[in-house]
Each structure stands twice: as C-alpha cells, then as structure tokens.
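Question (not urgent): is this output format expected?
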Amino acid sequence: MTSLLTNTSAMTALQTLTQTNKNMAVTQNRISTGYRVATASDNAAYWSIATTMRSDNKALSTVQDALGLGAAQVDIAYTAMESAKDIIDEIKVKLVAAKQPSVDKTKIQSEIDQLQDQLVGIASAAVFSGSNWLSVDSSAAGWNAIQKVVSSFSRTGSGTIKIGTIDVDLTKTALFDANATGAGLLDAGQALTADGGLQDTVTPVAGDGSGTPASVTLFTDVDTDGVTLDENDAIKFDLVFNGEATTITIDKRTVDAALGSSDGVVADSTDMASVVALALQNAGFDTTSDVTVAADGSGGVAITHVSDATDATLAVLNSATSDNGNFFGVSDIDISNATDAQLDAYIAGLDAMAANVTTAASDLGAVKSRIDLQKDFVDSLMDAIDRGIGQLVDADMNEESTRLQALQVQQQLGIQALSIANANSQNILALFR
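Got this back:
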C-alpha cells in the first residue's frame, strides 16, 4: 500500500542515513584525536586502565629525575673519595720516608700538614645540592645516617603504591664527622664501652731464672661482661717481648677466625685466650716457643714467657680500643718528634684507613652502577607502559581511514535513497492531475 501520510521508505532511508552519520562522526573523531578510546564513554574499562597507567608513567618520570640527582651525588662523593685515597697514600709515603735515619722530620711534617689540610678540603668540597656525604655532623638536628635515592614506583594488584629506594649509609662513607662522639673513616674512634678489662702492665715483668717465667695479664673481666666486636671495632696493644715492642691488633675477623664463629662475640676468658693467641700468631709470635696464652682462672687472660731467664721480659703497653678501627685521626698525625714505634703505628693506622676508604669507594661505585642500571630499566619500563596504553586506546589509522571512505560512500547512497523515497510521493500526486 502506498500512503501519502506515512512514507515508510523515507523513514527507513532517514534512519540508515542518521546511523551512517553517527558512525562517520565517531570515525572522524578517532582520526582527529588518534584515540580509539578518548573518553570514558568510549570504553570505561580501557579508559580507566589507561588513565591510571598514564598517571603512573608521570610518577616514573619523577623517579628518573630522582635517579639523576642520586647519580650526581654519588659521582661527587666517589670522585672526592678517590682523591682522598691518593692523599692518604701520599701521607703514607712521607711517613715511610721519615723512617730513614737523619731525615729532618720537621720538614716532612710541614708537607704532611698540607696534605692533612687537603684531605679536609676535599671532604668539605664534596657537596651537591647542599648535601655532603663525606664531611658530616651526626649531632646536627634532623641528622639521618641513611640517605635514600628514590629508585622505583610500583602499584600492586590491590592498588597499593610502593616507592623503592637505594640506601646509602653515611657511617660507611663519611671521612670526617664534626660530632665529638662520632667518627668518620679518617677520624679517631671512640673507646669501646665493654673491653673485657683491657689493661697495661706498669713495668716490664722478668723471669727469675728459677722456674718462674714472666707473665702479664691483659684482660681481667671477660667472664663478667664478655666482648663483642662488630665489623669496625678493634682492640690493640703493644706486646713488649724481651724489650722489643710489637703492635697486636684484634678485630672481628680475628675473633671469628679464632672461634669459628661469625658474630664477633667473645663469651668468656677461655674464648679470649684463643683470640689473643691467634692475634699473637698473626703478628709473628710462636705461641709454643715464645709465649703461651691461657685463661688465668679469674676472668682474665695471661700471656706467659716460655723462658724464665731474668732477661726474658714481657710487658703490655699502649692498650686501646676503637669503635671504627682507628686509634688516631689522620689530622692527629705529628711526626716532629716521633719514635720509630710511633711511625710504625702511624703507617699501620694509615694503611687501615686507606683500606676503609677503598671499601667505601667500592661501595659508592656499586651504588652508582646500580643507579645507572635502574635508570635504564625505568626508561624501558616507561616505553613498555606507553606501548601497553597504545594497545588499549590508540586508533588504527589504516583501519579508520578505510572505514571513513566506506562511510562516505554509504552517506552518499543514503542521501540518494532518501531523495528517491521522497520522490515517490511526488509521482502519486501526478495521478490526480
């Protein structure tokens, strides 16, 4: 049936043309923006994921900046640490030169004074953005020995955010600490609170030639308090054997080697006797033919001369402890009137300081390497996130351009179909003429 009131063909053509125009608008919007999902109404789930990931990528960009700042700080500290190591070696060379007979120690000391000032200057100048990891003051308000470099940003499956950091312990890198109770790698350490009753003998003890050899007590109350040494702690004393002094050093490595442990704990005088015996052996003493070492039965450790001759003497002098292994600071060195024994002590102490500085530089190098690796990883991670977002929301321009051409043809056909449908009514009117 043909009706003038209801043009079914025109209605159908109009609906088709309207849908075609809507589809064309969507395609044109995708081509204009480059996004398949530009708003939440396009695809709520994909839009939500993409928006969150874009936000996380901005946070990762900040992590990149933080890693750059951290790398710069580490680089400054590492460079200064290397220079400090060279200066320490130079001071050690001067000390060895001072061992030569008839050398003017005063002139050598004037050179050492300049090198000491240079060390302080190097540490003070190792500043980046107001932060100094080599010259610190642990007594300052807000002091924190652990410096953190932001290294990562991540989101768990539950949506919880985690910020990762690379930590640097300044107690292991600081060369100088202005705090009177603190100690840098080149400062004198503080005495240990519990030293097992470490003590000197006032005068050398001699054998009597009648079966009673010289014997000295080094520790007096190990059984009461015990002794625990950490990685930096050290005990030292001079054992004067037949009038010749030898410096003996006990540290955590000595304790663990003597007791077969790894915690640096000396529980009683029997354990301490084993530790002292190993320390003497490390210094070149024969604990069978030179001296013997044993717990004295009253909480101490006795070192006894093997010979009972009246000229077979023993003494313990210059006993001391240190919580960082240094029994003097590099700035305390003064050889103007130093004896050979003092020079030997300075050389040995500087050698230990150089080893600690080398370890600190190695640690900083490892941190720098890790920061570089993390920077590369963050760069790659941001690129991967961008690719993932693109898979979700980016438009396929080849597909969209082809679709646009098809829709343009459909639009033209729809307009023509609507024109034909409207023309049918005009044809019916001709029948009434």
